[in-house]
Design brief:
491 residues; alpha/beta; Rossmann fold; Dihydrodipicolinate Reductase, domain 2; 3 domains; nine-stranded mixed β-sheet; eight-stranded mixed β-sheet; 12 helices; 21% strand; globular; NAD binding
Length: 491
């Protein structure tokens, strides 16, 4: 009897050890396995909400070559030689066990997998994975459809799965003209930074709807939350994600809660006290079933807080300064003109603009032990996306450069903050290499400086997509808390 095509094989040679013809055949064999993996990964996702990735590299809706690249990346960074053959064996076991509603990190499961007793080991690891399967979907409304709103829409549409998770139901915008719907759909379809939408988009001008990859999105025109009745569109117990930034306090955002069909609100900007500023991975557990409004802080706060937590836990931070080199944003002028903010009136496309950032102080809202220990400034630069934070830290103990890099590298692979922290040690990377990275921040290990108790870290971050990914995690957690709140209600 032949070997099962998904069976674990220990005798897979590396391409570098093979003659030219054999190396090519080994490549073709891996391509064939990756092609077999695509429908399995897709079916597990669509039917059982199994999200498959390799150390954070998403495999759902990826091509066979992308799957191979994810495995090669894992081999380069991790100690364990992760192979597609092993991953296929894990997928087979997941399929047999009929697991659902799990985040399947093949890299983390296989990092310590033994050659002997492989299948039993995998089954033990899978049994420990938490499940988030729900009996019904959670409606999501995007209030505002700018840079972050459209990226949230793309992620929500791509995460539709079986339909029992987050479900994008509507966007609320101000009408911009007679062809508003066509333009909104076009901006969703095409993006100068993040590329084309992966899928199909159709519009219905009579119903004011956008149909994107089977997700029907109602477009609601309003410039006042008080005018919207979401139940008229079949929306119930929704989470409204406010992307406008018009209201950042409890009273302003509570306008959403007063509308029929709304149960929770998430703000995609720093909020004012007493609102909880959430950096997912750091303090999301502080969200309680009774919390109706939370904020997802800022892109910079999300990028630096996880890294600061790791360093503070390991070495203790006495004080530090955060300097952000930040891509320009829509609140700046393209050419010199009046602006109510200092220096932001000067041309964003032609200047480095020194400005303020509240990210350093905002860190303490998620990480109270750093209260009063950080200062910060920002320099806006003429790039459209991807920023960098430079963390200049004084520690409570001496630090070794290699040791701190290894700590952050290991965290990015198998740590509790692996969804927030990525790590690179390439000498060739530049900002555009991180467009579309779904981590909150990426530590550039080659730039790390350590001397005595002084540490300087350079952290890249896609201030649009990485931040939007963090927002989605907050929304998912809010949905879980909503379900718990319903369970607490008297029968």
């Amino acid at each position: 009897m032949g070997t099962h095509p998904l069976a674990y094989r220990e005798d897979v040679p590396t391409a570098s050890s093979l003659p030219v013809d054999s190396a090519h055949q080994a490549w073709l064999d891996r391509v064939a396995l990756a092609e077999l993996a695509v429908p399995i990964i897709g079916r597990l996702y669509r039917e059982r909400d199994v999200v498959t990735h390799v150390h954070g590299k998403k495999l759902v809706n990826q091509s066979p070559i992308d799957i191979m690249k994810a495995h090669k990346w894992a081999r380069r960074i991790g100690e364990h030689v992760l192979s597609i053959e092993q991953s296929m064996a894990v997928l087979r076991i997941v399929d047999e066990l009929e697991l659902r509603g799990i985040s399947l990190d093949l890299g983390r499961i296989l990092v310590d997998a033994p050659a002997e007793g492989f299948e039993g080991w995998v089954r033990e690891q899978l049994a420990e994975l938490p499940s988030w399967s729900q009996d019904e979907p959670t409606d999501v409304v995007l209030y505002g459809f700018g840079r972050i709103g459209r990226l949230l829409a793309r992620i929500l549409i791509g995460h539709a799965g079986s339909g029992l998770g987050l479900r994008l139901r509507a966007i609320v915008v101000r009408r911009g003209g007679e062809d508003d719907l066509e333009k909104r759909a076009s901006l969703l379809r095409r993006d100068s930074v993040h590329g084309a939408f992966q899928g199909t988009i159709d519009i219905d001008t009579e119903a004011n709807t956008i149909l994107a990859n089977g997700t029907l999105i109602q477009v609601i025109y309003s410039d006042d939350p008080a005018t919207v009745d979401y139940t008229q569109h079949g929306i119930q117990r929704a989470i409204v994600v406010d992307n406008t930034g018009r209201w950042r306090d409890q009273d302003g955002l509570a306008q959403h809660l007063g509308r029929p069909g709304v149960e929770r609100v998430v703000l995609t900007a720093p909020g004012k006290n007493p609102l909880k500023n959430i950096v997912f991975g750091v303090n999301h557990e502080t969200i309680e079933p009774s919390d109706t409004i939370v904020t997802a802080a800022s892109c910079t706060t999300n990028a630096i807080t996880p890294v600061l937590q790791v360093i503070n836990d390991a070495y203790g931070i006495e004080h530090g300064h955060v300097e952000t080199v930040h891509s320009y944003t829509n609140d700046q002028n393209l050419i010199d003109n009046f602006h109510k903010g200092q220096r932001r009136g000067r041309s964003a496309a032609l200047n480095m603009v020194l400005t303020e950032t509240g990210a350093a102080k905002a860190v303490a809202k998620a990480l109270p032990e750093l209260e009063g220990k950080l200062t910060g400034n920002a320099i806006r630069v003429p790039t459209p996306d991807v920023s960098m934070a430079i963390l200049n830290l004084s520690l409570e103990q001496d630090v070794d450069r290699d040791a701190v890099n290894e700590l952050l590298r290991r965290t990015s692979l198998t740590g509790e903050l692996r969804a927030q922290i990525d790590f690179t040690d390439s000498a060739e990377v530049v900002s555009t290499d991180f467009v579309g990275n779904n981590r909150a921040g990426i530590v550039d290990g080659l730039a790390t400086i350590a001397s005595g108790r002084h540490l300087v870290l350079y952290v890249w971050y896609d201030n649009e997509y990485g931040y939007s990914s963090q927002v989605i995690r907050v929304i998912e957690h809010m949905a879980d808390q909503m379900a718990k709140a319903r369970q607490l209600l008297p029968a």
